[in-house]
Design a protein that fits this description.
By secondary structure, this protein is of the alpha/beta class. Helix content is 32%, strand content 13%. The protein has two domains: 138 residues, Rossmann fold (3-Layer(aba) Sandwich), CATH 3.40.50.2000; 162 residues, Glycogen Phosphorylase B (Rossmann fold), CATH 3.40.50. It has a six-stranded parallel β-sheet with strand order 8-7-6-9-10-11, with helices on both faces. Strands 3-2-1-4-5 form a five-stranded parallel β-sheet. Helix 2 packs parallel to helix 6, helix 7 packs across helix 8 and helix 9 crosses helix 10. The chain starts with 8 loop residues before the first strand and ends in a 13-residue tail after the last helix.
Length: 328
């Protein structure tokens, strides 16, 4: 009896920053579709391993071996060598990755990438489109402009823990999530007064409002909630997994362009992104997700207005009755 051949072994090296990591979920899913029977392992930043473990696109997710200097390169090469990979898809976006790829490349059957280092090949300048074009050149059947990160598998974890349910945080089914924190160095596209006014309008129409973010965003979140009676802050009290789950089950997510905006959109939350004048063009930088994304852009004379945000809320039916959003 002829023994079955061993399954193909594939390694996917994922980016370090959260926005690029979420964007890389689109090519990761395309790789899984192209290699349905392969054993696919992923290297990810240690802080994001827990977030990615529920994904069916990976058989295992491990913390990426750190390389801060030349002394750590031999250990990294040995880790690649022990893996005996048929293909390595390198999706990293940091230029540092290129410095040690060459040392490990000889110990994989095929090394594709790092394909996230340059975005100039994408006509819209978007990282996801760039990923798709690079994978198509590598032989995968993908439509670069149609690639969308889809992390709705996060909701499958609700079967094992109630801490991903809105009710765990005292929320009803009909709520909007705000993530007002700014990314480092970004100009503020909206004042606290705008966030508070939007929250009051939503609350007056029977829509719950919760404000999420990191510990660094807690002061901003608390100020919004003080100015909008009934809004509640979860800033600094939820990890990335719970923010993603809350976004996926919300009526809408309102956020400036920050790392969590990518996570919210990727998780399936209908997302409204407020762009400022100093932000990159929305066609090149707006997050993508299966729940849809509305980009609100400033004009030459004014920033995004409250009415712009309210109109986006109407488009997304954020004022409608409660509805249940299921996992993919």
């Amino acid at each position: 009896m002829t023994a079955k051949p061993a399954p193909e072994k594939i390694l996917i090296c994922l980016p370090g920053s959260l926005d690029a990591l979420v964007s890389a979920m689109a090519p990761a899913a395309a790789i899984r579709r192209h290699h349905p029977r392969a054993r696919i392992e992923a290297f990810a930043p240690e802080a994001h391993v827990k977030l990615l473990e529920p994904s069916s696109d990976f058989d295992t997710v491990e913390a990426e071996p750190e390389i801060d200097g030349l002394k750590q390169i031999p250990a990294y090469v040995q880790r690649i060598r022990r893996g005996n990979y048929n293909i390595v898809y390198d999706l990293r976006t940091s230029p540092k990755a290129a410095r040690y790829v060459s040392a490990a490349r000889a110990f994989a059957g095929r090394w594709v990438g790092p394909i996230g280092l340059e975005k100039s090949s994408a006509p819209d300048g978007h990282l996801v489109t760039h990923y798709g074009m690079a994978l198509r050149e590598a032989g995968l059947n993908v439509n670069p402009s149609a690639l969308v990160p889809d992390m709705r598998w996060i909701l499958k974890l609700r079967r094992t823990t109630r801490t991903l349910e809105p009710a765990y945080f005292g929320l009803g089914e009909n709520y909007v999530l705000m993530i007002p924190g700014l990314r480092p160095g970004a100009a503020n596209p909206w004042e606290v007064s705008n966030w508070s006014a939007l929250a009051r309008e939503l609350l007056a129409n029977g829509v719950g409002v919760t404000v999420a973010g990191s510990k660094a965003d807690a002061a901003l979140a608390n100020e919004i909630c003080r100015n909008a009676d009934g809004a509640r802050s979860l800033a600094g009290r939820t990890d990335l997994l719970r923010i993603a789950a809350l976004a996926a089950q919300s009526r809408a997510v309102f956020t400036p362009l920050n790392a969590l905006s990518y996570l919210a959109a990727g998780a399936g939350g209908p997302t409204v992104v407020l762009f400022g004048r100093k932000d990159p063009p929305s066609k090149a930088a707006a997050p993508r997700g299966p729940g849809g994304v509305i980009s609100l852009n400033p004009t030459t004379t004014s920033l995004v207005t409250l009415e712009d945000a309210l109109q986006a809320a109407r488009v997304l039916d954020a004022f409608g009755g409660a509805k249940t959003r299921e996992s993919a």
